[in-house]
């Protein structure tokens, strides 16, 4: 008899404790937004390096932007040669986070880089609840970002609000002897009239409407002929080729002049910081 009473009390206590814990769980779930729900309110900016680029492409720019209180680098997306994606970092709500994409194979084809970028951005939505992003690409990174948008699928990815490309060669690289030194799938795609570049033009009707787009080109020479203007590697006319892809009303361009406006110098240029600050975040850069 005593054992039965004890057993019944024990069962009652367990049921009461379970009900209490369940009630607390339901209360916390319904009253406190999840991390993913909060992340739906932020707009990370994704930075993509170019051919033979890496951490150094955007590290110092992000540091300068942090010092200007524009935002903060919060995550790095590593893509291995085999295409395995690793996201390191966190995305706290109520801030302007920066996400840096790093391709271990920085000489991969434009098509391959686009597939990898798709996976990175898909994970940002699926695992972190990101609903909208900005994209910034230097050189071939700008091409990859553009190609991503030309193959964009609603529902699979966050909505891209703004795109900024820096020194991206939409009409290829025409520097004499360049492709005698550089040989790789990426280099093949950077040749004028390459299949990869022509394919982007042919798909221009698929570029999403409403994506504000900024094109930045550098000019280091003082030639009177616009066709001769270049950053030491990419001609400004090649960068402006983006105009034939972006829908009317969504395109704007900025030309940075001077000896420091070289192809690799543009992501270190204070004028580029200023233009990006105003375009992406409506923030004045000193």
From TrEMBL:
Q: Which InterPro entries match?
A: AB_hydrolase_fold (IPR029058), DUF915_hydro-like (IPR010315)
Q: Which domain of life is it from?
A: Bacteria
Q: What is this protein called?
A: Alpha/beta fold hydrolase
């Amino acid at each position: 008899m005593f054992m039965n009473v004890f057993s019944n009390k024990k069962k009652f206590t367990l049921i009461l404790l379970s009900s209490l814990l369940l009630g607390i769980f339901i209360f916390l779930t319904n009253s406190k937004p999840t991390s993913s729900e909060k992340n739906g309110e932020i707009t990370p900016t994704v930075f993509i390096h170019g051919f033979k680029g890496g951490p150094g492409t955007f590290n110092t720019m992000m540091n300068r932007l942090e010092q200007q209180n524009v935002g903060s680098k919060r995550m790095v997306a590593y893509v291995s040669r085999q295409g395995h994606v690793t996201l390191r970092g966190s995305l706290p709500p109520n801030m302007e986070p920066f996400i840096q994409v790093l391709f271990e194979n920085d000489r991969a084809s434009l098509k391959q880089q686009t597939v990898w970028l798709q996976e990175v951005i898909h994970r940002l939505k699926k695992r972190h609840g990101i609903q909208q992003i900005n994209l910034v690409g230097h050189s071939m990174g700008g091409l990859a970002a553009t190609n991503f948008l030309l193959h964009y699928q609603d529902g699979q990815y966050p909505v891209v609000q703004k795109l900024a490309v820096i020194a991206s060669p939409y009409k290829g690289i025409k520097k004499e002897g360049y492709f005698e030194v550089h040989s790789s799938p990426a280099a093949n795609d950077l040749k004028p009239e390459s299949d990869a570049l022509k394919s982007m033009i042919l798909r221009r009707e698929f570029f999403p409407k409403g994506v504000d787009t900024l094109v930045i080109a550098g000019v280091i020479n003082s030639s009177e002929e616009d066709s001769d203007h270049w950053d030491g590697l990419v001609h400004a006319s090649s960068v402006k080729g983006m105009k034939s892809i972006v829908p009317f009303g969504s395109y704007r361009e900025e030309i940075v002049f001077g000896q420091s406006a070289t192809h690799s110098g543009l992501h270190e240029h204070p004028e580029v910081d200023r233009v990006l600050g105003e375009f992406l975040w409506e923030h004045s850069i000193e």
